[in-house]
Amino acid sequence: MTDTSGVARGALPLLIVDGANVVGSVPDGWWRDRRGAAERLRDRLAPLARSGVAGLPGPLELVLVVEGAARGVESVPGVRVEDAPGSGDDHIVALAAAARDRPCQVVTADRALRHRVTEHGAQVTGPRTVLA
Prior knowledge:
Oligomer: single chain
Largest sheet: 5 strands, parallel
Strand content: 15-25%
Order of helices and strands: EHHHEEEEHEHEH
Shape: globular
Radius of gyration: 13 Å
Structural class: alpha/beta
Distance between the termini: 31 Å
């Protein structure tokens, strides 16, 4: 199976981005258009699927998890967008738990989520990693 970048899934390090947390870390009016803010983040993330981020060199599988009013954002080459069926945090934890056989990094500033994903072996980094 391949992801939207055409690279075999499961063979690459996994970068999971907490969309709500990363979007919310920049006070740019995102609250007026949550879906639009998620789309702008998705587009900003796309190049990172090839280049990677600090601590996780590319290429990598990149998953943007969205929830609430941001649901329905389409995937693009390099970024798979997943609508959390309930809690975004719970969905991110499930993705991290399923990635036990490969490097996994979660981008979030949420302290409780950071603790939950590290229990499954994921590394954690803050929003600046993908916004710099």
